[in-house]
Write a structure and sequence with these properties.
By secondary structure, the protein is an alpha/beta fold. About 40% of the residues lie in helices and about 15% in strands. It starts with 12 loop residues before the first helix and ends with a helix.
Protein backbone atom coordinates (compact mmCIF):
# COMPACT_ATOMS: atom_id res chain seq x y z
CA UNK A 1 0.00 0.00 0.00
CA UNK A 2 1.40 3.38 -1.03
CA UNK A 3 1.97 6.28 1.33
CA UNK A 4 0.09 9.56 0.99
CA UNK A 5 0.50 13.13 2.27
CA UNK A 6 -3.11 14.28 2.09
CA UNK A 7 -3.57 15.85 5.54
CA UNK A 8 -1.34 16.33 8.56
CA UNK A 9 -4.06 14.66 10.65
CA UNK A 10 -3.68 11.41 8.71
CA UNK A 11 0.05 11.23 9.41
CA UNK A 12 1.19 9.57 12.60
CA UNK A 13 3.57 11.45 14.88
CA UNK A 14 6.48 9.29 13.71
CA UNK A 15 5.52 9.94 10.09
CA UNK A 16 5.40 13.70 10.62
CA UNK A 17 8.79 13.67 12.33
CA UNK A 18 10.25 11.53 9.53
CA UNK A 19 9.02 13.95 6.85
CA UNK A 20 10.47 16.92 8.73
CA UNK A 21 13.79 15.13 9.21
CA UNK A 22 13.93 14.08 5.55
CA UNK A 23 13.21 17.65 4.50
CA UNK A 24 16.25 18.86 6.44
CA UNK A 25 18.70 16.15 5.31
CA UNK A 26 21.41 16.91 2.73
CA UNK A 27 20.46 16.10 -0.85
CA UNK A 28 22.79 13.24 -1.73
CA UNK A 29 20.30 10.75 -3.16
CA UNK A 30 18.60 10.07 -6.48
CA UNK A 31 15.49 8.31 -5.21
CA UNK A 32 13.43 9.33 -8.23
CA UNK A 33 16.02 8.62 -10.92
CA UNK A 34 14.11 7.76 -14.10
CA UNK A 35 10.74 8.21 -12.40
CA UNK A 36 8.06 10.78 -12.95
CA UNK A 37 5.80 12.82 -10.69
CA UNK A 38 2.53 14.04 -12.18
CA UNK A 39 1.44 17.53 -11.14
CA UNK A 40 -2.32 18.02 -11.48
CA UNK A 41 -3.34 21.63 -10.91
CA UNK A 42 -6.99 22.65 -10.90
CA UNK A 43 -5.80 25.83 -9.19
CA UNK A 44 -2.73 27.84 -10.24
CA UNK A 45 0.31 28.51 -8.06
CA UNK A 46 3.71 30.01 -8.76
CA UNK A 47 5.42 28.75 -5.61
CA UNK A 48 3.89 25.27 -5.54
CA UNK A 49 4.74 24.48 -9.14
CA UNK A 50 8.27 25.84 -8.79
CA UNK A 51 8.89 24.03 -5.49
CA UNK A 52 7.64 20.70 -6.83
CA UNK A 53 9.63 20.95 -10.04
CA UNK A 54 12.90 21.77 -8.30
CA UNK A 55 12.41 19.14 -5.57
CA UNK A 56 11.73 16.29 -7.99
CA UNK A 57 14.63 17.36 -10.22
CA UNK A 58 17.03 17.39 -7.27
CA UNK A 59 15.96 13.86 -6.40
CA UNK A 60 16.75 12.72 -9.93
CA UNK A 61 13.22 12.54 -11.33
CA UNK A 62 11.10 14.53 -13.75
CA UNK A 63 7.69 16.18 -13.57
CA UNK A 64 4.82 16.48 -16.03
CA UNK A 65 2.40 19.34 -15.48
CA UNK A 66 -1.31 18.96 -16.20
CA UNK A 67 -3.44 22.07 -15.94
CA UNK A 68 -7.16 22.27 -15.41
CA UNK A 69 -7.87 22.71 -19.13
CA UNK A 70 -6.04 19.45 -19.93
CA UNK A 71 -7.55 17.32 -17.17
CA UNK A 72 -11.04 18.67 -16.52
CA UNK A 73 -11.66 16.68 -13.36
CA UNK A 74 -15.27 15.44 -13.42
CA UNK A 75 -16.07 17.48 -16.53
CA UNK A 76 -13.88 16.14 -19.30
CA UNK A 77 -13.12 12.94 -17.40
CA UNK A 78 -13.95 11.48 -14.01
CA UNK A 79 -11.48 11.87 -11.17
CA UNK A 80 -11.32 8.09 -10.95
CA UNK A 81 -10.26 7.70 -14.58
CA UNK A 82 -7.70 10.48 -14.24
CA UNK A 83 -6.24 8.62 -11.28
CA UNK A 84 -6.17 5.29 -13.12
CA UNK A 85 -4.37 6.88 -16.07
CA UNK A 86 -1.74 8.54 -13.91
CA UNK A 87 -1.29 5.33 -11.89
CA UNK A 88 -0.33 3.48 -15.10
CA UNK A 89 2.43 5.96 -15.92
CA UNK A 90 3.70 7.65 -12.74
CA UNK A 91 4.72 6.69 -9.22
CA UNK A 92 3.41 9.83 -7.49
CA UNK A 93 0.65 12.32 -8.22
CA UNK A 94 0.75 15.73 -6.51
CA UNK A 95 -2.49 17.69 -6.78
CA UNK A 96 -3.94 21.18 -6.22
CA UNK A 97 -7.66 20.59 -6.32
CA UNK A 98 -10.94 22.26 -5.50
CA UNK A 99 -12.64 19.38 -3.71
CA UNK A 100 -10.80 17.39 -1.04
CA UNK A 101 -13.01 14.34 -1.65
CA UNK A 102 -11.16 13.73 -4.93
CA UNK A 103 -8.23 12.29 -2.99
CA UNK A 104 -10.31 9.51 -1.45
CA UNK A 105 -11.97 8.75 -4.78
CA UNK A 106 -8.61 8.34 -6.52
CA UNK A 107 -7.25 6.25 -3.69
CA UNK A 108 -10.16 3.84 -4.06
CA UNK A 109 -9.94 3.81 -7.86
CA UNK A 110 -6.24 2.98 -7.84
CA UNK A 111 -6.54 0.58 -4.89
CA UNK A 112 -3.98 2.67 -2.97
CA UNK A 113 -1.24 2.00 -5.53
CA UNK A 114 -0.71 5.63 -6.53
CA UNK A 115 0.89 7.85 -3.89
CA UNK A 116 -0.87 11.19 -3.55
CA UNK A 117 0.41 14.51 -2.24
CA UNK A 118 -2.02 17.28 -1.41
CA UNK A 119 -0.64 20.57 -2.71
CA UNK A 120 -3.86 22.35 -1.68
CA UNK A 121 -7.51 21.46 -1.33
CA UNK A 122 -10.48 23.22 0.20
CA UNK A 123 -9.77 21.35 3.45
CA UNK A 124 -5.99 21.15 3.91
CA UNK A 125 -2.58 22.33 2.74
CA UNK A 126 -0.09 19.95 4.40
CA UNK A 127 3.01 20.79 2.36
CA UNK A 128 2.62 24.47 3.22
CA UNK A 129 2.33 23.56 6.90
CA UNK A 130 5.51 21.48 6.71
CA UNK A 131 7.34 24.40 5.08
CA UNK A 132 6.08 26.73 7.81
CA UNK A 133 7.22 24.42 10.61
CA UNK A 134 10.68 24.25 9.02
CA UNK A 135 10.81 28.05 8.77
CA UNK A 136 9.86 28.50 12.42
CA UNK A 137 12.36 25.83 13.48
CA UNK A 138 15.17 27.52 11.55
CA UNK A 139 14.57 30.76 13.44
CA UNK A 140 13.85 29.52 16.95
CA UNK A 141 15.37 26.04 17.28
CA UNK A 142 18.46 25.77 15.06
CA UNK A 143 16.36 23.91 12.53
CA UNK A 144 15.05 21.21 14.88
CA UNK A 145 11.22 21.02 14.83
CA UNK A 146 11.31 18.78 17.87
CA UNK A 147 12.45 21.74 19.98
CA UNK A 148 9.53 24.08 19.25
CA UNK A 149 7.56 23.28 22.40
CA UNK A 150 6.78 26.40 24.43
CA UNK A 151 6.45 28.76 21.47
CA UNK A 152 3.23 30.64 20.84
CA UNK A 153 1.95 31.07 17.28
CA UNK A 154 -0.90 33.42 16.44
CA UNK A 155 -2.94 32.98 13.29
CA UNK A 156 -5.03 36.04 12.43
CA UNK A 157 -7.81 36.50 9.87
CA UNK A 158 -9.80 34.08 7.74
CA UNK A 159 -9.18 30.51 8.92
CA UNK A 160 -8.16 28.77 5.71
CA UNK A 161 -6.92 25.32 4.75
CA UNK A 162 -3.42 26.55 5.61
CA UNK A 163 -4.49 27.51 9.12
CA UNK A 164 -6.00 24.08 9.78
CA UNK A 165 -2.97 22.10 8.58
CA UNK A 166 -0.53 24.39 10.36
CA UNK A 167 -2.45 24.25 13.65
CA UNK A 168 -2.55 20.45 13.55
CA UNK A 169 1.18 20.23 12.88
CA UNK A 170 2.20 22.80 15.49
CA UNK A 171 -0.01 21.59 18.33
CA UNK A 172 1.28 18.05 17.81
CA UNK A 173 4.79 19.47 18.23
CA UNK A 174 3.85 21.09 21.54
CA UNK A 175 3.37 24.62 20.25
CA UNK A 176 0.58 26.83 21.61
CA UNK A 177 -1.65 28.12 18.80
CA UNK A 178 -4.03 31.06 19.17
CA UNK A 179 -6.48 31.71 16.35
CA UNK A 180 -7.94 35.19 16.07
CA UNK A 181 -10.89 35.53 13.70
CA UNK A 182 -14.36 37.11 13.62
CA UNK A 183 -17.55 35.10 13.69
CA UNK A 184 -18.04 33.22 10.45
CA UNK A 185 -14.32 33.02 9.73
CA UNK A 186 -13.19 31.11 12.82
CA UNK A 187 -12.00 27.53 13.11
CA UNK A 188 -14.74 24.90 13.19
CA UNK A 189 -14.65 21.20 13.95
CA UNK A 190 -15.49 18.28 11.76
CA UNK A 191 -13.18 18.44 8.72
CA UNK A 192 -10.54 15.89 7.75
CA UNK A 193 -7.94 18.40 8.98
CA UNK A 194 -9.22 19.31 12.44
CA UNK A 195 -6.95 20.98 15.02
CA UNK A 196 -9.79 20.80 17.54
CA UNK A 197 -9.49 17.01 17.47
CA UNK A 198 -5.80 16.94 18.41
CA UNK A 199 -5.56 15.32 21.83
CA UNK A 200 -3.95 17.59 24.40
CA UNK A 201 -3.61 20.46 21.93
CA UNK A 202 -2.71 23.90 23.28
CA UNK A 203 -5.24 25.69 21.11
CA UNK A 204 -7.21 28.82 21.90
CA UNK A 205 -9.78 30.71 19.81
CA UNK A 206 -10.55 34.41 20.14
CA UNK A 207 -12.50 37.04 18.24
CA UNK A 208 -9.86 39.70 18.99
CA UNK A 209 -6.82 40.19 16.77
CA UNK A 210 -4.94 41.97 19.55
CA UNK A 211 -5.68 39.20 22.04
CA UNK A 212 -4.51 36.58 19.55
CA UNK A 213 -1.23 38.35 18.83
CA UNK A 214 -0.42 39.40 22.41
CA UNK A 215 2.91 37.85 23.39
CA UNK A 216 3.10 35.67 20.27
CA UNK A 217 6.46 34.51 18.91
CA UNK A 218 5.02 34.03 15.42
CA UNK A 219 2.26 36.01 13.74
CA UNK A 220 0.73 34.35 10.68
CA UNK A 221 -1.91 35.39 8.19
CA UNK A 222 -3.34 34.34 4.83
CA UNK A 223 -5.32 36.04 2.08
CA UNK A 224 -8.73 37.34 3.06
CA UNK A 225 -10.10 36.49 -0.37
CA UNK A 226 -8.98 32.99 -1.32
CA UNK A 227 -9.51 31.42 -4.73
CA UNK A 228 -13.20 30.77 -5.27
CA UNK A 229 -14.36 33.59 -2.97
CA UNK A 230 -13.76 36.55 -5.27
CA UNK A 231 -17.45 37.52 -5.28
CA UNK A 232 -17.22 38.07 -1.50
CA UNK A 233 -14.32 40.51 -1.73
CA UNK A 234 -16.15 43.63 -0.56
CA UNK A 235 -17.85 41.92 2.39
CA UNK A 236 -14.70 40.14 3.48
CA UNK A 237 -12.70 43.37 3.53
CA UNK A 238 -15.28 44.88 5.86
CA UNK A 239 -15.58 41.82 8.11
CA UNK A 240 -11.83 41.31 8.45
CA UNK A 241 -10.64 44.91 8.56
CA UNK A 242 -9.67 44.71 12.25
CA UNK A 243 -7.52 41.63 11.56
CA UNK A 244 -4.98 43.27 9.27
CA UNK A 245 -1.38 42.71 10.36
CA UNK A 246 0.10 46.18 10.49
CA UNK A 247 2.81 47.77 12.59
CA UNK A 248 0.36 48.68 15.36
CA UNK A 249 -0.98 45.14 15.74
CA UNK A 250 2.52 43.68 15.63
CA UNK A 251 3.47 45.77 18.66
CA UNK A 252 1.31 43.44 20.79
CA UNK A 253 3.48 40.45 19.86
CA UNK A 254 6.77 39.47 21.48
CA UNK A 255 9.61 41.86 20.70
CA UNK A 256 11.44 39.20 18.68
CA UNK A 257 8.33 37.91 16.88
CA UNK A 258 8.47 36.86 13.25
CA UNK A 259 5.76 37.28 10.61
CA UNK A 260 4.69 34.60 8.15
CA UNK A 261 2.36 34.59 5.14
CA UNK A 262 1.89 31.66 2.76
CA UNK A 263 1.48 33.97 -0.28
CA UNK A 264 0.26 35.34 -2.57
CA UNK A 265 -0.28 38.39 -0.38
CA UNK A 266 -2.89 41.04 -1.00
CA UNK A 267 -0.87 43.95 0.33
CA UNK A 268 -3.02 46.45 2.15
CA UNK A 269 -5.68 43.87 2.96
CA UNK A 270 -4.45 41.19 5.36
CA UNK A 271 -0.93 42.63 5.67
CA UNK A 272 0.73 45.99 5.11
CA UNK A 273 3.81 46.68 3.02
CA UNK A 274 5.65 47.81 6.12
CA UNK A 275 5.20 44.43 7.81
CA UNK A 276 5.55 42.30 4.68
CA UNK A 277 8.85 43.93 3.75
CA UNK A 278 10.00 44.59 7.32
CA UNK A 279 12.78 42.95 9.32
CA UNK A 280 10.42 40.57 11.13
CA UNK A 281 9.06 39.04 7.93
CA UNK A 282 10.33 35.58 6.96
CA UNK A 283 7.98 35.02 4.03
CA UNK A 284 10.77 34.39 1.55
CA UNK A 285 12.32 31.77 3.81
CA UNK A 286 8.90 30.10 3.73
CA UNK A 287 9.09 30.06 -0.06
CA UNK A 288 12.48 28.34 0.04
CA UNK A 289 11.13 25.73 2.44
CA UNK A 290 8.28 24.85 0.07
CA UNK A 291 10.97 22.96 -1.84
CA UNK A 292 12.27 21.41 1.41
CA UNK A 293 8.76 20.26 2.31
CA UNK A 294 8.28 18.57 -1.04
CA UNK A 295 11.63 16.82 -0.74
CA UNK A 296 10.64 15.54 2.70
CA UNK A 297 7.29 14.26 1.45
CA UNK A 298 8.81 12.54 -1.57
CA UNK A 299 11.56 10.88 0.45
CA UNK A 300 9.06 9.65 3.05
CA UNK A 301 6.88 8.17 0.31
CA UNK A 302 9.86 6.35 -1.20
CA UNK A 303 11.02 5.07 2.19
CA UNK A 304 7.69 3.25 2.48
CA UNK A 305 8.13 1.21 -0.69
Amino acid sequence: MSRHVVTISELGNDDLRAILESARAPIDDSLFAGQGVALVFERPSLRTRAACSTAVHELGGYVTFFGDDEIGLDSRESAEDVGRTIDALYSVCAMRIRHHSVFQRIRRATMERLSLINLLSDVAHPTQAIADVLTIADHFANGDPGQLGGLRVAYVGDVTNVARSLAVALTRLGVEVVVGAPEGYQLTAGTDEDPLAVEGAKLRLTSSATEAVRGADVVYTDAWVSMGFEEETRRRRVDLDAFRIDEALLEAAASNAIVLHCLPAHRGDEITDGVMDGPQSLVWQQVAHRRSAMIGALRWIKDGE
